[in-house]
Amino acid sequence: MPDDSGYSGRMRFIQGIARVAAILSCILIIVLSLLPRLPQPVRFIGADKVGHALAYCLMSFLFCLGFLKPGTSPGRLIALLGALILLGAGIEFLQPLVGRNFDIIDMLANGSGVGLGYIMALLPRRLVLRAA
């Protein structure tokens, strides 16, 4: 049965799991981004950029699913997505301090991933809310 937020018990459970996973994914991205260059497991042109986009897509998906509710104000949505984009940009500026390269294209890949993650988060929310 939905509570005053419109959420069923199932959605509250999913939201709780998504919150924990979002925070863990954020920590993992920060740590891996600030370690000295790691060997790439997959090699093809643009593999690095695809990896950036996928990592930020997953993180954004989890943050949106975990921290945004139906009817979230546009300001809160912009603040969350903006914070994730700024995180990616900030990490890029810090990477030269740990022997890695600053790359504006990585920033674009990170931002693209954030946007895609938001779009992807819309579908499960609608499916879960509809089934409740």
Characterise the protein shown here.
With 132 residues, the protein is mainly alpha-helical. The chain has helices spanning 9-34, 47-67, 74-94, 104-131. Helix 1 runs antiparallel to helix 2. The mean pLDDT is 87.
Task: Please specify the SSE layout and strand pairing.
Blueprint: H1 9-34, H2 47-67, H3 74-94, H4 104-131
Give a quick summary of the entry.
It is elongated, with a radius of gyration of 16 Å.
DSSP helix fraction:
over 70%
Tell me the radius of gyration.
Answer: 16 Å
Count of runs of 4 or more consecutive helical residues? 4
Strand content: under 5%
Low-confidence stretches: none
Q: How many distinct beta strands?
A: 0
Average residue-wise pLDDT? 87
How would you sum up the global shape?
A: elongated
Terminal residue distance: 7 Å
What's the story with the biggest beta sheet? none
Order of helices and strands: HHHH
Structural class: mainly alpha
Name the features.
73% helix; 4 helices; mainly alpha; 132 residues
